[in-house]
Amino acid sequence: MAMYRRPSLSEYVIARLITLVIFITFIFSFVLIITPDEFKNIYFYISIFVASQIILLISVYYGTKCISKELKNVEDYLSGATIKPELSAHFFTREFESINEKLIQMLRKIQKKEKQKRKYTAKIKLKNRQRSDMLSAIAHEFRNPIASIMGYSQTLIEDEDIPKGLRVKFLSKIYNNGEKIEELLSRLLLWNRFESGSQKLQLSKFDLKPLAHEVALNLEDKYKNREIVVEGESFVVKADRALMEIVLKNLIENALKYSKEVVMVKFENRRVSVIDQGVGISKENIDKVTKKFFRTDEHSWDNSMGLGLAIVKQILKLHNTVLEIESQEDRGSTFSFVI
């Protein structure tokens, strides 16, 4: 079955005029035939002429109304009226139908650009908010070590007779706070590489358990009177050794900060688990702790700008694995991953 083909405007006007002429000719021919001769005078013919003009005017008025209706549809599109582009308007000529189709295409493009603009604006707002959060976090984290360095340095400068033992202690405090600032800067630089996508894996084969022992020994020197137990089976992985060291260090140090008991590092069936018996994490925050710059007020945690676990998550993602968290408040947490 052939599809209906809409006429052009000229075809439509000519067809209307021909129809009108045939209609008027038929009507008045019929009137002339049935009218007796005694009534056919000058007034009769004038009446017929006036009637034909009236019919012509009415037809022209009706045609004008149809065209006005079609122009109104076009005006609605152009004025931004709330018309869904998917709804097709009923046009009786090809010209207006073509205009309608082009307007719909134009509106769809505008809507697409508006949607992209809204997404871009939302993304810019999010970036600005994150930048503000980052600056706030940096200021918060750097304030304490810088204040300590300035305080101990000022004391050493002002008191030349300070005992040697106390001087060594103050210098040690200055050094430790300097190390903390260096670590914070390293985390920021590493996160920046993740954000820009410039961080690449340097893969090599190595045994993960000896690396955990090495990290544990270094942290036991930092956290005096704390015990870290590494147990389970050794296994060789193909991964970025430097990044995996950061993962183990962040997870173990996280456990040391928020618990007072022994921290366990278990290796079992290619799963690495860091287990503590500390303060735990609430259910509403368990999905948030790996987000960048997230800081919970529950236990006044010092999470190094909220980047520690976020960095762990990104490193594991690069190694095609995920960080799994199980935790109960006041009972402890288990951070694990399979590699």
The first-level CATH class of the largest domain is given as Alpha Beta
Series of H and E elements: HHHHEHEEHEEHEE
Report how far the terminal alpha carbons are from each other.
Answer: 64 Å
Helix content: 55-70%
Rg computed from alpha carbons, rounded to a whole number of angstroms: 42 Å
Number of helices, counting only DSSP H or I runs of 4 residues or more: 7
Trace the largest sheet across and list its strands: 2-4-5-7-6
Fold-level CATH name of the largest domain = Heat Shock Protein 90
The mean pLDDT is 79
Gross geometry: rod-shaped
Unreliable spans are: 298-303
In percent terms, what proportion of residues is strand? 5-15%
- Oligomer designation: single chain
Folded structure, characterized:
The protein has 339 residues and is of the alpha+beta class. The protein has helices spanning 9-34, 42-78, 94-158, 164-196, 208-222, 241-257, 308-318; strands spanning 203-207, 228-232, 236-240, 263-268, 271-276, 324-328, 332-338. It is rod-shaped.
